[in-house]
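Hello forum,

I keep getting stuck at the same step: I have a sequence, I want structure tokens, and every attempt I make locally crashes halfway through. Rather than fight my setup again tonight, could one of you with a working pipeline run this one for me? It's a single chain of 393 residues.
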Amino acid sequence: MKEYKLLFFITALAIGFESCQQPGATVTAAKAADKSVDRDKISGAVSCTAIGLTVADSIMYMNGGGTDFQPTVLNKKEPKEKLVPGMVWIPGGEFSMGGVNPLGMADGGHEGMSDARPVHRVHVDGFFMDATEVTNREFAEFVHATKYITVAEMKPTKEEFPGAPEENLVAGSVVFSPTPVTDLKNSYQWWNFVHGADWKHPLGPQSDISGKDNYPVIHITYEDAAAYAKWAGKRLPTEAEWEFAARGGKAGELYTWGNVFRPDNKWMANTYQGKFPSNDEGKDGYPGIAPVMQFPPNAYGLYDMAGNVWEWCNDWYRPDYYKQLAGEKIVNNPQGPETAFDPTEPGQKKKVQRGGSYLCTDQYCTRYMVGSRGKGEYRSSSNHVGFRCVKKV
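Reply #2:
Ran it on my machine without issues. Output:
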């Protein structure tokens, strides 16, 4: 099981990188079958797969969210400290959390996303949240102050991956590689585990982040994000806090900005245009990752709560967690399940991710929809995952 986990983790790491590759730096999909570490890295880092569920209740979205979504009721308590640099105040309150099946609707994609149901009523206290995803500049300040080394920069150990050949135990992370394919069911075709890829070298050892201080930091595991948050006097958001903030006080809408994907023909988030996964045409202005604050903020003043890069949450992931909560009238400040479980990869401990990334597309994965959920193995990283922090009053 451990050897398979390593194979899966490496495969997952390879799935998360960007398109550019350095000669000789990657492990190709064909070779990955023989390198269990690589496949395990990739599978752990990647959320989206085409699973082809049925249409079911997608009609709810077409009718403004349906009766499952009730109005949001905001808390009236105001914080004593009105301003926290780089953060915005989220009042908290009671809201309808979750999503419905997007299949069968315009811009709906090919995933039913059953783990986002049933829609249930949740209350969260107020909090401050970073206005943007944590940037390369901010993370560099943390590393300079603490000498922190990210998981992607560390060589995997024999203890973590027993039975893996020594030559496979190489530091690196997962990178997306544009690939012409006809079958979207095998995501290993467009992900590579790249030796030497990390937050300072996003495409491999020959790349760097010069001139990208204002880009989201990537190749960050949950452990890395939590370490930064602790240093900054903050923490990672719960999944409920993240969704409350993303909805901006609205109820049951498809996106963080409303129910129309491109209102007045305007791009509202950094997503994937063109034929996936071979060619991101960048019609929204950015083929690949964008700097922060390039698209309009939501009603709370939060940028990039959809698209750009996935964001880590503090909760462990279980696809049935919402069903466990469904019997309660109102769930107060949920912290997620006590343990992680993903039936498709039962050996991996996964944390929730939210918001989608620049790779989300209605051809494959539309997890830029505000109620949808992602997940990632907590020690896996890729070039489409970052984070932002919150702070309690």
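The two ends are 43 Å apart (CA to CA). If your local run keeps crashing, start a new thread with the error log.
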